[in-house]
Amino acid sequence: MKVKIINKSMHNLPHYETEASAGMDLRANISESITIKPLERAIVKTGLFMELPVGYEAQVRPRSGLAAKKGITVLNSPGTVDADYRGEIGVILVNLSNEDYTIENGERIAQMVISKHEHISWEEVEVLEETTRGAGGFGSTGHK
């Protein structure tokens, strides 16, 4: 599938690192570094604008290494870029560590997965079909 993209950043287009990768890394496109203090958040611009086909979304997700090693994650994970959005892709990052974290220009800050989705129509009913689980919620299927 081809997706139209405008790259106003100083960096190459996002790409798949391996043949089996689901996501492509997004890079910070900033004129000066941004320091995020513990529990603070920042919107970091990428310089990318795209036109997704209707029926698709771009999901902006954390990079596992950045989250595990530094405590930096995507606040509204996954963030959704809708097919009708034409603005610059920004990433809402939050610092969940106890130390300041500085983002530099060109740093890989998140990953983006393109995903197909469906639109549904609601059918209001009085009763739902029974299942073994029923109304069992969080943790109701066991520990192992």
Automatic annotation (TrEMBL):
One example GO MF annotation: dUTP diphosphatase activity
Top enzyme category: hydrolase
GO biological process terms, semicolon-separated: dUMP biosynthetic process; dUTP catabolic process
Gene3D superfamilies cross-referenced by the UniProt entry: 2.70.40.10
Catalysed reactions, as listed in the record: dUTP + H2O = dUMP + diphosphate + H(+)
UniProt cross-references to Pfam families, sorted A to Z: dUTPase
Limits of the dUTPase-like domain: 12-142
Superkingdom of origin organism: Bacteria
Enzyme Commission number(s) of this protein: 3.6.1.23
Entry cofactors: Mg(2+)
InterPro entries (alphabetical): dUTPase (IPR008181), dUTPase-like (IPR029054), dUTPase-like_sf (IPR036157), dUTPase_trimeric (IPR033704)
Keywords: Hydrolase, Magnesium, Metal-binding, Nucleotide metabolism
Pathway participation: Pyrimidine metabolism; dUMP biosynthesis; dUMP from dCTP (dUTP route): step 2/2
Binding site for substrate: R63, S64, G65, N76, T80, V81, D82
Its biological purpose: This enzyme is involved in nucleotide metabolism: it produces dUMP, the immediate precursor of thymidine nucleotides and it decreases the intracellular concentration of dUTP so that uracil cannot be incorporated into DNA.
PANTHER family xrefs: DEOXYURIDINE 5'-TRIPHOSPHATE NUCLEOTIDOHYDROLASE
Family the UniProt entry places it in: Belongs to the dUTPase family.
Protein name: Deoxyuridine 5'-triphosphate nucleotidohydrolase
Organism: Salegentibacter flavus
Taxonomic lineage from the root: Bacteria, Pseudomonadati, Bacteroidota, Flavobacteriia, Flavobacteriales
Name of the gene encoding the protein in the UniProt record: dut
